[in-house]
C-alpha cells in the first residue's frame, strides 16, 4: 500500500514516518510506497523497502492537493496544520491552512473519486480543542463540540467535512482527536500548553522551567509514541465500524500538574523538581481553566485504541528517548 | 435600526418581512431601514415606515456580501440557503451556497469590522439536520452534533464559524436550529419531510395526500408564525447571555403522525382524514427513522423562546391563514 503523509516534517509526521518504515507495513498491507509532503522539505527516511518521494509543497497552493494524491495513495495521513497559538494570532492563515487546506485535500479526493473511483482511507488529526467550556469533569463520547479557539473551530469544521464525504462514499475517513502530546521534545515553544511538557523536559535536561498555573490543574495527555500508535492502529481499522460518527476522542492519561511533578521527582529527584519556578500567569490560568480534564473514551477503547499506562510511563518514555539521543 | 434579510423571498423571509413591517420595530429599536436580498427578486412590502431596498443578488457572487452590508445594517437575518434535498442532490451547489455563502457573509462583516468597527447582530437559521443517529428519545442541549446529510453538515459548519467570529468580536451572532416548519404552506415539494405538512394541508384543501411512513413516527415541529417569532425574539435578545455556545435548539411540539391525524380530524372530520392515503416508502421511512423526535430545550426556554402550545394550535393557525387567504 502507498501511504501519503501531509505534514510529514512535523513532530508527529517524523515519528510516523519512522514507525511506518520500521514496521514495513501499513495496516495489514506491506508499505510499497511512501510520499512525504510538508511546506518544510521532509527528510527522506533511510531503509524504506518501498519507493520514497519527498516534496516541499504548500497544501493550499493551487493544484497542490491534486499533485499530492496523483499517485493515488491508499491511505492519507493528514497532519498538516497551523497550531493553536498561530491560528489564534493569525486568523486568515489558520482558516487557510486548517480549513481550506483540509477542504482542498478532500475535494481533490472527491474529484478523483468521480474520475476513477479512487476512495482512500483518510486519517485526520483533530484535537481536544474542539471542546469548550462549560465542561463536565469527565467528558463522554456524546458531548457537544463547542470550540473556544479558532484552531478548535477549524478542526471541528474539518471533522464535519470528512464525516460528510465519508458518508457520501468519496473517501473513508476518521478524525482522531489526539490528547495533548507530552513530553513534547524540542525547544520550549509559544503554545499555551507548552509548560505541561516544559516542567518535565527542561528540569531533566538541567534547565529551569516556568509553571504558570496552580498544581491542581488537570489535563489529558498522551506520549509521542502513543500518538504514533493511534495513527498506526487507525491504518488497520475498518472505518465502517464508526458509522456516521467519524470523530473519535482518544484515550489518554488524566493527570494534574502535582502528579506530573511527582512523576518528575521519581526520575529526577528533588534537584529536578527544584528547577520548576512557580510564576502564576492569570491569563494562562484562565485559558487552561476552559480545557478538558478527562474523557470517557469508550468508543475508542472498544475500537482497540490504547493509551499510555500512567504519567510515570510517559515520563519514562521521554527519559529513554532523551538518553538515547544524548 | 437597519435590518437586512438575506433569503428574503423565501417562505420564512417573506413572513419575517411582514412581521417586521407590521411591528415597526426590531428588538427594542424602531425599524429605520429594511434591506431585502434574495437570488429571487424580493417583493417590496407595503406600509414600511423606514427606507426599503430590495435586490436580486446571489450571495455567493463576487462582492455580493460586501454590497449586502454596505449600508451597515445593525442586524442581519441570514436565511439564504439551498434546502436539504437539493444540497444532497447537488453537492457543489449546497457547499457553495450554505457553507461558502455563509462564510462570505461573515468574512465581509469581519473586514468591515476591521475597517470601521462594524459589529452587527447576525441571526443564522440552522436546522435539526445537524443531529444524526443514534439519538436518544429526548435530546438535551449538550448532545453531540453528527449530521446525516450534507445540508446538516453545512449548517453545522456555519454554526461553528459564526460562534468563532462572535467569540473574536467581529460580530454578535446566534444560530437558531429551527424545528421542522409545519404546516408549510404552498405546493407539495420534494423535501423528504414534506408529508408532515402535506397530510394536514392537502386534505384541508380537499386534496389527497400520501403518507409514506408509519403512524408511530414522531418528530419536532413549529408553526410558521412560531418560526417568525423566534427570529423576532432573537432580535431583542442580549447574545452575551449565550457565552461561547452560540447555537440554540428551539422549542417545538413533539408529535407523532397519529397525533397529527387526530388534530386534522378535529378540524376536518373523518372526510379530511380519509384523504390520507398510506403508501409506505421504505426509503423515506429509513431516512425519517434517523431524525430527532424531541428535545429538552432548557437553554432556549430560559432565554425566553416559546413554542406553539400544541399540534392542535399549529393546525388552527394554518386553518385561520388558509381561510384568510381563500
Ligand atoms: N502535538 C499535539 O499535542 C497535538 C494535539 C492534537 C492534535 N495535533 C495535530 O496533529 C498534527 C501534527 O501535530 P504536530 O505536533 O506534529 O505539529 P507540527 O507543527 O510539528 O507539524 C505540523 C506540520 O504541518 C506542516 N504544515 C503547516 N502548514 C502547511 C501547509 N500549508 N502545507 C503543508 N504542510 C504544512 C508544518 O510545516 C509542520 O511540519 C496537527 O494536525 C496538529 O494539529 C497535535
Ligand atoms: N422551513 C423549515 O422547515 C426550516 C427548518 C430549519 C431551518 N430552516 C432554514 O431557514 C431558512 C429559511 O427557510 P425557508 O423555509 O424560508 O426556505 P426557502 O427555500 O423558502 O428560502 C430560502 C431562500 O434563500 C434564497 N437563496 C438560495 N440561494 C441563494 C443565494 N445564493 N443567494 C441569495 N439567496 C439565496 C432562495 O431563493 C429562497 O428564497 C433556511 O436557511 C433554511 O435552511 C428552515
UniProtKB/TrEMBL annotation, chains A, B:
Q: Which InterPro entries match?
A: DenD (IPR050005), Epimerase_deHydtase (IPR001509), NAD(P)-bd_dom_sf (IPR036291)
Respond yes or no to whether keyword tRNA processing is given for this record: no
Q: Does the keyword Metal-binding apply?
A: no
Recite the UniProt keywords alphabetically: Carbohydrate metabolism, NADP
User: Which residues are in coiled coils?
Assistant: none
Domain NAD-dependent epimerase/dehydratase intervals: 3-210
Protein name according to UniProt: D-erythronate dehydrogenase
| Record organism | Methylobacterium cerastii
- Organism ancestry: Bacteria, Pseudomonadati, Pseudomonadota, Alphaproteobacteria, Hyphomicrobiales
Amino acid at each position: 500500500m502507498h501511504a501519503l503523509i501531509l505534514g510529514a516534517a512535523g513532530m508527529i509526521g517524523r515519528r510516523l514516518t519512522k514507525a511506518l518504515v520500521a514496521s514495513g507495513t501499513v495496516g495489514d498491507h506491506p508499505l510499497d510506497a511512501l510520499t512525504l509532503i510538508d511546506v518544510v522539505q521532509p527528510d527522506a527516511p533511510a531503509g524504506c523497502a518501498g519507493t520514497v518521494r519527498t516534496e516541499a509543497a504548500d497544501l493550499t497552493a493551487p493544484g497542490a492537493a491534486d499533485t499530492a494524491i496523483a499517485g493515488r495513495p491508499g491511505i492519507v495521513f493528514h497532519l498538516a496544520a497551523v497550531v493553536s497559538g498561530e491560528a489564534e494570532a493569525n486568523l486568515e492563515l489558520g482558516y487557510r491552512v486548517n480549513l481550506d487546506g483540509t477542504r482542498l485535500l478532500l475535494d481533490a479526493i472527491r474529484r478523483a473519486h468521480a474520475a476513477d473511483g479512487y476512495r482512500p482511507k483518510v486519517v485526520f488529526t483533530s484535537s481536544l480543542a474542539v471542546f469548550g467550556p462549560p465542561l463536565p469533569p469527565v467528558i463522554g463520547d456524546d458531548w457537544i463540540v463547542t470550540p473556544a479557539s479558532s484552531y478548535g473551530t477549524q478542526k471541528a469544521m474539518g471533522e464535519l467535512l470528512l464525516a460528510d464525504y465519508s458518508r457520501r462514499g468519496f473517501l473513508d475517513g476518521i478524525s482522531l482527536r489526539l490528547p495533548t502530546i507530552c513530553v513534547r521534545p524540542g525547544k520550549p515553544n509559544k503554545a499555551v500548553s507548552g509548560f505541561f511538557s516544559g516542567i518535565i523536559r527542561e528540569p531533566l535536561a538541567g534547565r529551569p522551567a516556568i509553571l504558570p498555573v496552580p498544581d491542581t490543574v488537570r489535563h489529558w495527555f498522551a506520549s509521542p509514541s502513543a500518538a504514533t500508535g493511534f495513527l498506526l492502529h487507525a491504518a488497520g481499522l475498518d472505518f465502517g465500524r464508526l458509522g456516521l460518527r467519524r470523530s473519535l476522542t482518544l484515550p489518554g492519561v488524566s493527570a494534574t500538574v502535582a502528579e506530573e511533578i511527582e512523576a518528575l521527582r521519581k526520575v529526577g529527584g528533588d534537584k529536578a523538581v527544584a528547577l520548576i519556578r512557580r510564576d502564576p500567569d492569570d491569563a494562562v490560568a484562565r485559558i487552561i481553566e476552559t480545557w478538558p480534564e478527562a474523557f470517557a473514551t469508550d468508543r475508542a477503547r472498544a475500537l482497540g485504541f490504547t493509551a499510555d499506562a500512567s504519567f510515570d510511563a510517559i515520563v519514562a518514555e521521554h527519559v529513554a528517548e532523551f538518553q538515547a539521543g544524548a
